[in-house]
Amino acid sequence: MSSQSKTVVGKTPATVITGFLGAGKTTLIRGLLERADGRRLALIINEFGDVGIDGDILRACGNPTCTDDDVIELANGCLCCTVADDFVPAIEKLLARPNPPEHIIIETSGLALPKPLVQAFHWPAIKSRVTVDGVIAVVDAAAAAEGRFAPDPAVLAAQREASGTVDHETPVEEVFEDQLLCADLIVVNKTDLIDADDLARVENLIRAALNRDAKLVRASHGAVDPLVLLGVGAAVEDDLANRPSHHDEEEGHDHDDFTSFVVELPPQPDPDALAASLTEVAAVHGVLRLKGFIDVPGKPMRLLVQGVGARVQTHYDRLWKAGEERRSRLVVIGETGLDHDAVRRAIAG
Known about the structure:
The chain is 31% helix and 23% strand. It is α/β, with parallel strands linked by helices and 349 residues long. Helix 11 (271-285) packs antiparallel against helix 12 (340-348). The longest helix has 15 residues, at 271-285. The radius of gyration is 20 Å and the shape is globular.
């Protein structure tokens, strides 16, 4: 892998992996770790919410290249908002290790804007030491086909023809487009969940949002050759003028359009019934994302719950550790206005 990397001489390459909630970023990274071929990779994981699920999933991968020391989890909101306090010190900590990483992988929150994060690579503490090799945007093809991120291009064209304008973009659409506009490579993931016509429509939607060429790669279950993802050599921090954002004119930004909370549950004896219940809750209340771990009595493994919209999946991801508290906790993310109490009651049954 390293022989084909096009890195800036003297700088450690970093890859930013972005994508909306539930796109499959963590699964993509897990695949990278499984195909690392001995290369020293380090991970910086950031989540929107008070409980870190993705970092725990990656630590459970069982891969010797992924130890606790190799994963830095920043659960303080969003990396693009906490650069000085969290992100730059995390990079410095990795570079100060006796065996520093050969490549740093940064998984952003599903609500993060990648451009402000890339701008942080101009900070004096890391500018001469790290370069952004590339920005990878992961897209949930099934969610895009459902119209989660933008209307069909034909609908937009009809609106323009009729009135000369289009409806104002939703917060979800803005985040989705900002992630695409900063990307060097777009992984159209979960293609196994849609047919060829829907896939073509999704790819047209993505291309319509772009202002420049970006390579599209199709994937299912986040399986992409590491040689495609690493070694892009884009030096993104020096190319930000070509990567517009909806927030370029703002001094900062916040995530007031979105909300997150944690639901504690008792042990759940029937995973199928839980998944069916969560599917209904997400559909009725407009939940964007559900994820967490569940204690199933009598089972030695913990149950991982992953929900994107009303699409809920479960599987056992690893054994409960000796002495580990078998807690059942779900992180719920939605747009501001989501009724926390109503969702809690609905999940609790």
